[in-house]
Write a structure and sequence with these properties.
- This protein is mainly beta and 331 residues long.
- The chain is built from 2 helices and 27 strands.
- Strands 1, 20, 21, 22, 23, 24, 25, 26 and 27 form a 9-stranded mixed sheet that branches. The chain has a 4-stranded antiparallel sheet with strand order 2-3-4-5.
- The longest helix has 38 residues.
- The termini are far apart.
Length: 331
C-alpha cells in the first residue's frame, strides 16, 4: 500500500502572525504616543492655569453716571496722552474720557460727517494722538485729530473687504483684520493695498474670523485668529513667525510695548492672560483675596495706558486695573 503523503499548506501562518503582531505593536505604540501627548498637554495646561498675575482696580468708568449716558463698548483704546476712547457701536459714536475717567466729548454722526457712522469697531492711534476707527459696513477707516476733528477717510470699497473689524497702525500703514474674508491686509493711508495674506482655514497662514490685530513695534503683527483658538504672529511681509495656542477663542488683545507683554481676553469672557512677545504664558490675571483669587471675567476689549495700567471693557462700563508686583499678590 502506497504511503500517503501529507499535502503541505500553501499558507504561511507564521508570516501572517508576524505581520499581524507588528501591526498591533504599531497601533499600540501610536495610541501610547497619543496618550502621552494628551497627558503632557493636560499637565502643561494645569501648570499654566496655576500661574497668576494679581491686579487691583483703581478706577471704574460708568457712562450711566456721566453726561454721555450709558454705552456699550465694542472696543477701547488708551491714547498716548492718557485719554481713553470707546467705540460705542450701539449708539454709533466715539466717547472720550480723561485719565481720571471723566467724560470729555463724543464724536457722533454729526461730527464724523457723511456717510453716517454705522458699525464702529476697532480703534488705533499714531504717535501724535490721531485716532482711527474702522467703520465696518461703510468700508471706511475714519481718522480724527487729537481735538476730535475729522481729518481723513480711507475708502476700502472695491478691494475685496467683507466686514473688516480689526485695525492697527504700524507707523507707516494700516493693517486690517478682514474678518469676513479671513485675511490680513496692509493698506497705505491713501487706500492702496500693499499686501493681502491668508485664506479661510485652520492651517498655517490660514484664518477663521480674524477679529483684531496689533503691532508690537518690533516688526510683528499679532492677529486674533478667533475661531482657530489662537494668536498668529506675522512679520511685516505677512510670513507666519509663530502662534500662541489658547485652548479657547480669543476676543481681544492689547500690547504693552514698554514691558513687552501681550494681553488676551477670551470670547466667553472666562479669562484675561498675559504672554511674553515670544508667546510664553506669564499668567492669568486675577484679583481679590490672595488665598481665594478670582479671575478677571467678562472682558470684551482691553487697552494699555501709558503708565502700564490696563483698561478693561466690560461692555457697559470700563475698569482700570493696576498690575501688582509678583510678591504682592502671593498667599
Amino acid at each position: 500500500m502506497a504511503k500517503r503523503t501529507k499535502k503541505k499548506s500553501s499558507s504561511k501562518p507564521g508570516v501572517k502572525k508576524g505581520r499581524s503582531g507588528k501591526l498591533i505593536a504599531i497601533i499600540l505604540a501610536f495610541l501610547a504616543f497619543l496618550f502621552l501627548a494628551e497627558a503632557i498637554s493636560y499637565i502643561s495646561a494645569k501648570a499654566g492655569a496655576s500661574k497668576q498675575v494679581f491686579t487691583q482696580t483703581v478706577m471704574d468708568i460708568n457712562g450711566a453716571a456721566q453726561p454721555c449716558g450709558p454705552f456699550k463698548a465694542w472696543d477701547v483704546l488708551a491714547l498716548p496722552d492718557g485719554r481713553i476712547v470707546v467705540s460705542d457701536q450701539g449708539n454709533k459714536r466715539l466717547l472720550y474720557f480723561d485719565s481720571k475717567g471723566q467724560f470729555l466729548e463724543q464724536i457722533g454722526v454729526k461730527q464724523a460727517g457723511p456717510p453716517d457712522l454705522t458699525e464702529v469697531s476697532c480703534l488705533t492711534s499714531d504717535s501724535t494722538g490721531n485716532l482711527y476707527v474702522m467703520d465696518t459696513w461703510n468700508g471706511l477707516i475714519r481718522g480724527f485729530d487729537p481735538k476730535g476733528k475729522a481729518m481723513v477717510k480711507v475708502d476700502l470699497a472695491g478691494k475685496g473687504f467683507y466686514g473688516p473689524r480689526g485695525l492697527a497702525w504700524d507707523g507707516a500703514n494700516f493693517v486690517i483684520a478682514d474678518t469676513g474674508s479671513h485675511r490680513i491686509v496692509k493698506v497705505t493711508p491713501a487706500g492702496s493695498v500693499l499686501g493681502a495674506w491668508g485664506q479661510h482655514g485652520t492651517g498655517k497662514n490660514e484664518f477663521q474670523n480674524p477679529y483684531q490685530v496689533v503691532f508690537d513695534g518690533q516688526g510683528h503683527y499679532e492677529v486674533v485668529d478667533r475661531d482657530n483658538n489662537r494668536i498668529q504672529v506675522l512679520d511685516t511681509e505677512g510670513h507666519i513667525q509663530r502662534q500662541i495656542d489658547l485652548g479657547a477663542p480669543p476676543q481681544a488683545e492689547a500690547l504693552d510695548t514698554a514691558h513687552q507683554t501681550l494681553y488676551v481676553s477670551s470670547l466667553d469672557g472666562r479669562f484675561v492672560r498675559a504672554y511674553s512677545l515670544e508667546g510664553k504664558l506669564i499668567g492669568n490675571l486675577v484679583q481679590g483675596d490672595p488665598k481665594n483669587p478670582q479671575p478677571l471675567t467678562g472682558v470684551n476689549a482691553l487697552s494699555v495706558l501709558p503708565n502700564g495700567d490696563l483698561v478693561l471693557s466690560l461692555t457697559d462700563h470700563l475698569s482700570v486695573v493696576h498690575l501688582l508686583p509678583a510678591s504682592a499678590g502671593q498667599p
